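Hi R.,

Here are the chain sequences for the assembly we discussed:
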Amino acid sequence: MRYLIRRLGFFVLTLWAAMTLNFFIPRMMPGSPEEALRQRLSKGGSVVTAEQLRTVLAEFGFDPGKNLMLQYLGYLKSMVTGHWGVSIGSSLGVPVTSLIGDALPWTLGLVGIATVLAFVLGTLIGTVAGWRRGGLIDGIVPPVFIVTSALPYFWVALLLISLFAIGDNPVLPNDFNYDQGLTPAFTGEFVWSVIKHGILPASTILVTAVGGWILTMRNNMVTTLAEDYVRMARAKGIPGRRIMFGYAGRNAFLPNLSGFAMSLGFVISGTILVEYVFNYPGLGYMFYNATVSTDYPLLQALFLLVTLAVLICVLLCDFAVFLLDPRARTKG
Amino acid sequence: MSAVVAGASAPVTGATRRPRGGLFRAILRNRKAVVGAALLLLFILLAAFPGLFVPGAHHDPQAIGDLPLQHPSGSHWLGTTGLGQDVYAQLIYSTRESLVIAVVAGLGATVLSVVIGVSAAYLGGFADDGLSMLTDIFLVLPTFPLIIVLATYAGKGNLTVIIIVLILTGWSYGARQMRAQAMSLRNRDFLESARVRGERRSYIIVVEVLPTMISLIVANFLGAALYSVLTAAGLQFLGLGDPNSLSWGTMLYWAQNQGALVNGLPAWALSPGLAVALLGVSFALLNYAFDEISNPALRPVRRRRARTAS
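And here is the predicted structure of the full complex:
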């Protein structure tokens, strides 16, 4: 129980750290947000009154006249209660929450499925490779996946585009989430279109993410197989498959599981690049757009959201480890 | 391997079997390490003497030519950019900046992780709790979005900013490993004896502890360098680098901006990424090889032995 409480404490603390960074980074950096905002707003052609500017800035939690500490507390409060302000970028005045709500399902679907698939596949391949030490699979696996795990996301994306989406007869589309002529509905045509548009981005994530998990799982497997209880199981004549999954695999899997949550940050980094290359209207692409148009409120909200996603995953993995590993339960 | 060295002082050689240059020889025996080191050496040569690898006509890679968007040909090996610049020359001359970012940011992150990890393990108590917590927080914070946020606010394009940001976000993983390793060393006899001798704490850490951690430190540097290469290229690709600089990420940025793929110029769009990938692969191979050298269990086994074992 103490273990879980400590992990929850860590969750809260990290979230607080993310919010604090979010608050102080713009204030520590050179250049005043007020000036940047004025430029940004007047560039769009609209005339901005001082009154409007102040309203937007207040939404953004920035008030030059107020004490920094009070601003900070107010900011924390509005973040926690979900008042994330309005966009000051290309979609001026739209609440950040509704912008994010539109993009979230696409990223969750695409990245979620691709990541989980990569993790499951990687763990399985790693288990088999580690089990058949020196076998055919084990001979090929490490060198190949060292290479794929070092490939830049965007390069794999560009490569896939040039292979499948460009040329005389493109096999798969290379941008957006569905054919632009269609209206979203649960028809076969629409669903097929969504799937077709998702294949290339998803395979990009799969190709680059799977390698790391295969390698760590294989190495964990190799270490675990040298343990006495595995030899004992062999001596008892337990069938190989049961030793592989129930004895060695189960234990080798634990560090991989905590690694999964940790590496999620990397996957999200990759997603920004992948969605940018494929013009996929998810959170990553929105992040990029927010950067280009210096849309601070959106940028902050997205960063917070991404941190929250990683933290929730860390927490879930902690719970899973807690359930799977009696040592974590007793040690506290 | 040990026979030659062991001769003189037979009784104690059990502990110090590995002769001088053992690490070097171990690298030579590991195929992954050889491939990785060869690739890295090639990139170092390219970075140091780019002029040797580029035909004389293209010694100024930024020179604007009159033939934009050319396909690869005899005079332009990888074609030309939208401004008629030679892609091959740009590719070679870009090696320097990309390699410098990787090495400097990798070194910086490693130093930071050694300092934080080792001091956490040695100071213990409250300081350890605080530093470990800091490490864990940085480990979980999504770094790339954080980098983008930082780079956006700090003004785009500054190389120093990119390197500092890479260091600030890249140290945490290493620090955790350093702390674990230093913790396991903490109560060894040789450190105890140094303490009994009355050595200062700083002396113990620098002279006694760090040398025993050298293989982990090297592995860490390689990992951090790999991370820096990929992240810096990603940042520049998104346009957060200096658009006038010569680096692979910037080349990719321009290729994407001027629609290299759509215009049917895959050589321009893909070659800088391939260079990034190859540099990354060389770091990754070396890193993995170091794992194998320090943990013999991971080494590939010969087929003959494997058959009898299973």
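Chain A touches chain B through 65 residues (CB under 8 Å). The CA atoms of residues 129 and 141 of chain A lie 7 Å apart.

Let me know if anything looks off.

Best,
T.
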